[in-house]
Amino acid sequence: MGAVESTEGETEPLLVPAQHATNTAPVFSRVYGRRWFVLTMFSLLGFMQGLVWNTWGPIQNSAKHVFEFSSTEIAVLVLWGPVGYLPWLLFMWLMDKKGLRVSLLLSAFFMVLGTLLRCVPLKDLHYRRWLIHGGQLLNGLAGPTIMSAGPLLSTTWFAPDQRATATAIASLVCYLGSACAFLIGPLAVPAPNDTQIVGTSIHWDQNQIRDRIQFVLYTEFGMIAVLFMAVLFYFPSRPPIPPSVAAASQRLSYRSSICRLLSNMRFLMIALAYSVPTGVVAGWAGVLDMILTPANVSQVDAGWIGFWSIVGGCVFGLAMARFADSIRGMLKLILVLMFAGASLAATWFTLTCLTRLTHLPSTKATLYTSCILVGIFINSSVPIFFELFIETVYPVPEGITCGVVTFLSNLFTGLLLFCLTFYFTELSWLNWCLTGSCIFSLLLLLFFRESYDRLYLDVFVSV
Question: How many angstroms from the chain centroid is the CA of residue 306?
Fold first, then answer.
C-alpha cells in the first residue's frame, strides 16, 4: 500500500491563492533600516524649507526698520511660498517619471541658490530687497516636492503598519521649521523699539539689527548647503526590494492620474476640506505678528504663540498618526473630531480679539490657549488627510495625489495673502476667514464617504 504513487489531485495544495494575488504581490518584501536615514534627510530639508519661508513674518518690525520693507512687502515675502507652486504640474511629472531623488535634488538646489541670494550684502537697499524677494521665490519652488512627497516616501520605504507615522514625520517637519522661525527670529533679531531689562534700556541701532539678520541668513544658507551635499552623496529613490504589496503594485500613468483626480467628486470634496483650512491657517500664521499687534502683543510673545501652536500640532499629529497605524479604518472619524475642535478654538480666538464688542477677557493666557489649540487641531490633520487621499484614489501615485491637494492649499494661501496686500490696516477679517474655513471643512467631512482601497490590497491580497 505504501508503494502506491499519489495521484495528481492528491498532490495539489488545499489552499490555492487567488490568481490576481500572484500577479500583484511581490515574491519578497523587505523593510530596510536605512529607511530612517532617508526619512531624516527628507524631513531636515522640509524643516529648512519651512524655516526659510517663515523668516520675515516673525521679525517684520525689524525688517521694516533695516530694509525699509512696507507691510505689503512683508505679505509678498510670505506670498512667494504659494507662488512657487505655480509650476507644480512640472514637479509632479518629474517626481513620477524620474523618481524622488532627482526631484529632491532639484528642490534642494533651489533652496541653496535662494538662501545664497538673500545673503548678498548689497548696500543699495533697493537691489538688496530684490535679491531677498528672489531668494524667497526660489525657496518657494522647492515647496511642491517637499510638501507633497512625504506619502510617496512612506509608501516606498515603510511597511503598512508604519506608513501613517512616516507620513506624519515627513509632512509635519516643514511646519515645525516655520514654527522654529517664530522662536529663532525674535530671539536672534532684536525689535527696533527699546527693550527694558531690570530698569535699564537697551537701544538697538540699525547696524546691530542688520548684523543679527545677516547672521540668521548666513546660518540658514550654511545648513541648507550641508543638506544638499548629503542628499547628493546618498539618497536613493527606492529600496532594492519593496516593503509591501502596495509599494510594488503598478500605478496609473501621469495623464490618467490627473484625469482620474479631476473627475472624482469624492476626491474633490475631501481635497477642499483639506486645502481651504490649511491654506488659510498658513497665511494667517505667516502674518500672526501683524494680527496680534493691535492686541498689544509684542513681537517676542507673538513668536512664542506661533511657535507653540505649530509645535503642538506636530506632536499631536504624530500621536494621531501612530493611533491610525494601530487602529486602521478610522481616518474620517479622527478628522471630524479634529475639525470640531478647530472650529471651536478658532471661534474663541476670533471673539477674544474683538474684546471691545464681545467683552471677553483678552489676556495673554487666553490668546496663547486659543491660538495653540487652532494650530494643534489643524496642523495635526495634515498626515491623516494625506493617508485618506491616497486610500480614496488608489492606484493614483502618491506624489501626484498629494501634489494636487498641496497646490490647492497653497492657492488658498496665495489668495488670502493677495487680499492682505490691499486690506492690511484692520485684520480681524483674517480671523473670521480662519473660523469659516474650519466650519466649512467640518461640514464636508461629515458628508464624505470614506474607502480604503490601498489598505484592502495590503491586508487581503498579501494574505
Answer: 15
- The residues, any chain, with a CB within 8 Å of residue 357's CB and separated by 6 or more, are none
Block residue for cell numbers 477674544:
352
The number of beta carbons lying within 10 Å of the beta carbon of residue 248 is 15
Instruction: For the chain, give the number of residues.
Output: 463
DSSP annotation of 345 reads H
Rounded to whole angstroms, the Cα distance separating 289 from 291 reads 5
Q: How many CB atoms lie within 10 A of CB 280?
A: 26
Task: Please name every residue paired with 201 in a beta bridge, in sequence order, or none if there are none.
Answer: 196
Q: What percent of the chain has pLDDT over 90?
A: 24
Give the Cβ contact number of residue 252 at 10 Å: 18
Instruction: Report in angstroms the alpha-carbon separations of 278 from 35, 56, 314, 376.
Output: 28, 20, 14, 12
- In this predicted structure, what is the pLDDT of residue 14? 40
The candidate with the shortest Cα–Cα distance to 382, out of 261, 458, 453, 281, is 281
Alpha-carbon distance of 110 to 91, in angstroms, equals: 13
**In which residue are the cell numbers 522647492 written?**
142
Residue 27 confidence (pLDDT): 46
